[in-house]
What we know:
Helix content is about 30%, strand content about 25%. It is of the alpha+beta class. It has 5 domains: about 5-130, 3-Layer(aba) Sandwich (Rossmann fold), CATH 3.40.50.140; about 135-185 and about 460-565, Orthogonal Bundle (Topoisomerase I, domain 2), CATH 1.10.460; about 190-250 and about 385-430 and about 440-455, Topoisomerase I, domain 3; about 255-270 and about 290-380, Topoisomerase I, domain 4 (Orthogonal Bundle), CATH 1.10.290; about 575-705, no CATH class. It is globular and about 95 Å long.
Amino acid sequence: MSRILVIVESPAKAKTIGKFLGKKYVVKASMGHVRDLPKSQFGVNVKEGFEPKYITIRGKGDTIKDLRTAVKKADQVLIASDPDREGEAIAWHLQNLLEIPGEKPCRIEFNEITKQAIQNAARHPRRIDYNRVNAQQARRILDRLVGYNLSPLLWRKIKKGLSAGRVQSVAVRLICDREAEIQAFEPEEYWTLTGMFVKTGRAPFEGRLLKYKNKNIAIKSEKEMREVLDKLKGTHYMVSKVVRKEKTRRPAPPFTTSTLQQEAYRKLNFTARKTMMVAQQLYEGLDLGKEGTSGLVTYIRTDSTRVSASAREEAQKYITERFGAQYVGRETAPAGGKGKIQDAHEAIRPTSVLREPDQIKGYLTNDQYKLYKLIWSRFLASQMSQAVFDTTSVDIGAGLYSFRATGSIIVFAGFMKVYTESRDNGEKDEEGLLPELKEGEEVEARSLTPKQNFTQPPPRYTEATLVKMLEEKGIGRPSTYAPIIETIIKRAYVVRESKQFYPTELGDIVVAMLKNHFHDIIDVEFTAGMEEKLDKIEEGEQDWVQVLDNFYQPFSRTLEKAEEEIGHVKVADEVTEEICDQCGRNLVIKIGRFGKFLACPGFPECRNTKPLLEPIGVNCPRCEGELVARRSKKGRKFFGCSRFPECDFVTWDQPSNVKCPNCGDLMVEKKKNGKSSYLLCVNKECGGKSSAEKKTPRRKTAKTAKADANVNLEGESRTQDG
């Protein structure tokens, strides 16, 4: 019997795939990449056509030796790395290291890890796609050209240990630019007037002042509002117009990598990194008891909303049997997107819609279950019919003024029976139903409530909105969003507070320097254009060496010019009043992997460090101390007494400055999906609850945060010394 060796990337995938193939197949894992550019050298021969110098990754020797032994025993080798550029490059490196002839069909790929998909892929091997390989090589070398040339410049001109990345720097710029907009924003005052109207025998309803003399009204001061209220005194209110319409709402398309990260953040409070980690587990396969091991979702790195005909047919049959034929979508969800769509893979969907989340819940971790349910629900809803609403708009005349009330009711739930998409701005999806009203009827204004408002600056980025912006601008690709965010936080160019990104002083300085001297590197359009060129390399329309040369020639000239023009920029650490108990110096604030800490400026002579206590404005409920924010060893935030270890009071929940109405003890915020839901007394014997609408203490803005990072050229953290 002939032996066939199948090489995949991870042991988990090897375990799953091995169960789908026969006895003649041997499945082994390469453990990801096996070759890469050296970390200690530039590794690119610019003068010889940007020839890369690849070396075996440290620690992979035994893995490669084992694979070479297996290749000698096999009659055929199939390389089944991930179905994308990076996976193609891994296959190419394995082909070279294992001395597999280049013309031999040895590459297989699949979009889902199911028995049918794996067996079908094994029957149809192909040759390595060198256009894909060259596109990945070009990306890797571009990043090396920028990182290994620009980072030393930052070391010399700003601070030792800094690093600059081709794509990450643009993400930091987006955050810095947004912060500049916020700081420059000048709020403008405006007023709104809401009336509570009632018709005898019918439910009261709200309407907002909209027009004056048939033109939209803008009330900009309290004085103007008083004038309006004076004119409305004694006025009769009459229904002047009633408009009823039927409105439909289409389901959202199934998930792409970007929309999955956004929605998992909104609904599950998952970071992009956590979302991709859990999604990878669902993709690679899990043991489902008697059913055996199977991949639960399709490939998780995609920018397409396309769905296979077989998956659509299965979903339509399921919807018909579960909900009725009227719930089956009559048209497919739109496949478009705002960014540049490669459409290389299907959307992220369950491998079988018949595998309901609650049926397999017992075999999944809590996080796996939550994410699988989200993917399953979104896909099923995308194949369902539109929701139908009856909407009503009522205009109420009051002399020369006009109020408007709107309302709607769901007539047919359609896809909303299964799933509705979250929104970043927190707006309510639909409004309440209005009472039956007719034109010409008089209504009574029970109350008129004026409200002072101020225009708001654009919101700071959250993980969801930053990923959305990166996709819209064409920055990076599906597989890069999570690493981009992780890298810019690790480099301490931005900090995340209350789920929002703030640039640090260091981030501002680096972005300003790059703007002044390396405009292309930091330019959004230029970076997006480079992504398009990489796509064209993959499609065989451009030569990868020429693309690199067109970038490097002007970049190298800019480097020489910047070296002469840029002066030294001093980033001073924030000095505190706390004294080092070892040498007597004033401790300074630094930022490490898990946030801010105090360190002695006398490093390396003095290596003293201390945790930085962040008061939150709430007294300890057990003693006379003050509660402060701390970080666990894993970086998770908690709150404890400043007098620790004398007082050991701690809580994971955000303390409130509201006292328990029952016993007067401390109350903490309890949250659901990242949002405050109610306040709970810390006294377990009391268990008092109250509304979470009251304000909790706010921390200082991160605008004044001082940053310090000790990062190598690839953006990987070293040990924080002092």
